[in-house]
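Risk register update: the risk that structure generation would not scale has been downgraded. Supporting records follow, first protein first.
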Amino acid sequence: MSHEPKQSAVILVGLLSWQQSVITYIHRQWGCQAIALQPNSDEDYYVTLECDQVLRQNLLDEVAVCGTLEKLAETVSIAAVCTLNEYFVPLAAKLAAHFNLPGLALDAALNCRHKRRTREILARHHLASPRFVVVHSRAEVQEALLTVPLPVVVKPSNDSGSALVKRCETEMEVMTAVQAVLNHKTNALGLPMEPDVLIETYLSGPEVSVEACTIGGDTHILTITAKSIYSATKAFETKHTVPANLVPEQEAAVYRLITQTLAALGVDNGVTHTEVMLTEDGPYIVEVNARPGGDQISTLVRLARGYDLYEVAVHISMGGDLANLPSYLPLSKTATIQFFYAEEAGVVFRKRVPEVLPEGVYAFFPYYRTGNLVQETTSNYNRLGYVITLDTPLHNSAELAQKTLDLLELHVRTDWLTVMQWRLIGLFHYFREGLLRRQ
């Protein structure tokens, strides 16, 4: 009795809607199905209609998740397990090991996922990282500040996107920031927060991120991304440019630190996104993420360097090597993403996005229309949109990004009369649509 061979499949854990471009690569390059393993969530960012199959369940129940994939393996051949999502890096590592597939070791995944572990390991290896203390209550703050003097940065151990990260100048500000972290039992995606709160030395200088991949113990730096932060007190990111314009000595120092850091953390067989502060004393590690950079950095790297970080991550999960990384012809010497944000809560006003985008504008996505009520931007999770630009004969990508934003004339009005007027308009449309649905 003959049996047809099973169809091979790549399992994508916690795939986000804007990461679905990798599915085409999986189909084209590997001839595999793309199966999304998603949490039980009805949020739009977990809607992945382009996948061949979507499995939904509680991803915190790892025993049940393994059982689901074992059941799946009766009908398909699981060729790889991969995640592009910060929060599911440890789960993907466990699943890859369970099915004897290439991937990041679990210890390495945890070393990167939990900032406390990262800091402890880098301190033991005497690698440049801020001095830190871990606290679990406001009562521990005063003693912690004897070890890490003001100003400091307070942050959760296992969140992302600059959420709840706060620069503090006084002891009372530190206590408030620590309590804010402790008050959050889950993050923006509904996943559990650890009780560890880090109080770290404040680092001053330009910030960059290093996009790299490591295979068989060999780390290859794909590019360095220049980053702009709104302010020391509100640490959300406002702009990224690929590549960063560093002097050779600076670049070499960053390369050495990244290679040593990834080795100390045990990182192998994966893509990494490492944030680095360029201080007067040299580069310091801010954090290490064992997945491709977010904020459309993968798009920027493809446009300016020819590497699609999502595709590189799948390539490694499939057992690919450094010699044949997926690559493309770059479209520009530099690429920039600039974000729109609200300095205060209020009502958005802006011009329409032109139907034909100006030369050099690759993508233009305002999230809000005129009349929408928005909150003050405090993290990467509540910005108002973005523009991605390339070099043109007249402007480099960073200059063009700012000029394009200026064309939109986006601003937020905060006066009481305007806010109340648009609240009433919103309520009118809400009740009107409700009545129309009932008819």
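Supporting record for the second protein:
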Amino acid sequence: MALLAFGFIGVFLGPTLIAVGSRLVEEWGSTNRAALGETEAINSAQQMKS
């Protein structure tokens, strides 16, 4: 009986956790790319000044 209850909970909880986790990884990756782009822009601006 408990196994059946956990199965029903898992059907809803599993996809939710996967969706939230993938969204967090996606945001984390885009933030790192943006920070990398800003760093490259700063470096190229400094090279142009000198």
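The chain has a mean pLDDT of 80. On this basis the risk owner (M.S.) recommends closing the item.
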